[in-house]
């Protein structure tokens, strides 16, 4: 037998515009903006971010564990719990040696590093938390999820900058295809809204300085874009082999059919000006899916609202799809939630899957001024109803690391079951 087919059966999200997939989706459809002015960053060149407000970790985990986790892990554990509930998955009835966890993070516990380093300087080494290291290391999102549920399947954490969440889902897809697990909890989590992160990105002049209009700062593909808006949160999916999902009559959102990766081999932060890396990862994902470029209906773009990324991603899409690039819909949900760095791929994959399920494409808000180098249909300002059979989700990270996933609308369950048996 060949590779197993892989489906998504549950989703969970913690985002600046909604906690829980349902709230997140309703906000996306309406074009809600999550950016706001952050008082403590008043002295920085950028003082705006898309933050997760009204999040209470005790709603999702034991109080005794909260202090042992960084904020990014809080987000991951919460999103995983919501995804498991959404999938109607009782892990006590599963073979826990066949359930894996792969949750990526680009930075990990940066908030913990910052706070504990201040304690070291102000109060000395004896006052530093004994949980410093297990709070800051990036694999603790995956680690805590596996510990909470007693899961002994594959456990890993891609740390590939802004592609981490997409690589995590892609790697989980491969593990399931190869029959190394029946279920994998996969996605990304990040909590980078810290002084040190802001200082670094401000020094690199990567973030928008539209501080007087936070709600208009993230404007992917718009001529007057001036940088990204930092966000935080987590997006987690439950992936299962089709066989396993059918055996327990699980709800099925969509089928993952392709995964592509590439490197730019060009620069530590700037994308390849020819878009070769972006093109290659998309092409490899389509080849992996066995689909022609003309089959693509929607692309959830990386769309960061930076000058270089948006025009180079547009260039790569045109090269991949040719004239068909002008027929499809493209949108950047970062226009609403900001850039969640290592969590971006997770929350954007949730949005992509819900777009397929509901036949609605979220808009790219703040699109006001056409850029002649970005001349495709970015679904400006209002959501679009469209039947989506095939969608792609892109993520490109510092270091020139690129990832793309291809997702298909599911057939009716009876047809899927019949085809899987054959």
Structural commentary:
- Helix 11 links the parallel strand 10 (298-300) and strand 11 (329-331).
- This protein has helices spanning 21-30, 63-66, 71-86, 110-123, 132-136, 140-149, 164-177, 195-203, 242-247, 276-289, 307-321, 334-337, 344-358, 413-421; strands at residues 6-15, 18-19, 35-37, 48-50, 99-104, 155-156, 183-190, 233-241, 254-263, 298-300, 329-331, 360-361, 384-385, 390-397, 401-408.
- The relative contact order is 0.18.
- Strands 1, 2, 5, 6, 7, 8, 9, 10, 11, 14 and 15 form an eleven-stranded mixed β-sheet that branches. Strands 3-4 form a two-stranded antiparallel ribbon.
- The protein is an alpha/beta fold and 422 residues long.
Short description:
The protein is of the alpha/beta class. Helices cover 34% and strands 19% of the residues. The protein has 14 helices and 15 strands.
Strand residue content: 15-25%
Q: Which blocks of ≥5 consecutive residues have pLDDT under 50?
A: none
Helix content: 25-40%
Distance between the termini: 10 Å
Tell me, briefly, the overall form: globular
Average of per-residue pLDDT values: 96
SSE topology string? EEHEEHHEHHHEHEHEHEHEHEHHEEEEH
Radius of gyration from the alpha-carbon trace, in angstroms: 20 Å
- Strand tally is 15
């Amino acid at each position: 037998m060949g590779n197993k087919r892989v489906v998504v059966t549950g989703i969970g999200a913690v985002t600046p515009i909604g906690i829980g997939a349902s709230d997140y989706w309703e906000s996306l459809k309406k074009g809600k903006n999550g950016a706001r002015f952050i008082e403590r960053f008043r002295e920085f060149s950028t003082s705006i971010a898309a933050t997760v407000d009204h999040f209470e970790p005790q709603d999702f985990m034991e109080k005794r564990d909260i202090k042992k986790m960084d904020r990014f892990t809080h987000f991951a554990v919460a999103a995983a719990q919501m995804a498991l509930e959404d999938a109607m998955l009782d892990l006590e009835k599963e073979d826990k040696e066949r359930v894996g966890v792969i949750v990526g993070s680009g930075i990990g516990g940066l908030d913990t590093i910052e706070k504990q380093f201040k304690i070291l300087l102000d109060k000395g080494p004896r006052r530093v938390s004994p949980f410093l290291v297990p709070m800051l290391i990036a694999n603790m999102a995956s680690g805590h999820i596996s510990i909470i549920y007693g899961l002994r399947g594959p456990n890993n954490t891609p740390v590939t900058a802004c592609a981490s969440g997409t690589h995590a889902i892609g790697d989980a897809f491969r593990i399931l295809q190869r029959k190394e697990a029946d279920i994998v909890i996969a996605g990304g989590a990040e909590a980078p809204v810290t002084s040190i992160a802001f200082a670094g990105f401000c020094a690199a002049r990567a973030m928008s300085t539209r501080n007087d209009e936070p709600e208009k700062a993230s404007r992917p593909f718009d001529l007057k874009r001036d940088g990204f808006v930092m966000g935080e949160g987590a997006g987690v999916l439950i992936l299962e082999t089709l066989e396993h999902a059918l055996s327990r009559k699980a709800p099925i959102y969509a089928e993952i059919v392709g995964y592509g990766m590439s490197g730019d081999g060009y620069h530590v932060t700037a994308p390849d000006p020819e878009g070769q890396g972006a093109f290659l990862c998309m092409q490899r994902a389509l080849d992996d899916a066995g689909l022609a470029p003309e089959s693509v209906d929607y692309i959830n773009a990386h769309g960061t609202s930076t000058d270089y990324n948006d025009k180079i991603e547009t260039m790569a899409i045109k090269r991949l799809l040719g004239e068909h690039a002008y027929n499809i819909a493209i949108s950047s949900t970062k226009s609403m939630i900001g850039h969640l760095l290592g969590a971006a791929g997770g929350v954007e994959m949730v949005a992509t899957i819900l777009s397929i399920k509901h036949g609605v494409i979220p808009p790219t808000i703040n699109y006001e001024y056409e850029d002649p180098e970005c001349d495709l249909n970015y679904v400006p300002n209002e959501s679009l109803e469209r039947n989506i059979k095939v969608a792609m989700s892109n993520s490109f990270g510092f270091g020139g690391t690129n990832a793309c996933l291809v997702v298909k609308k599911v057939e009716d369950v009876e047809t899927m079951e019949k085809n899987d048996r054959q």
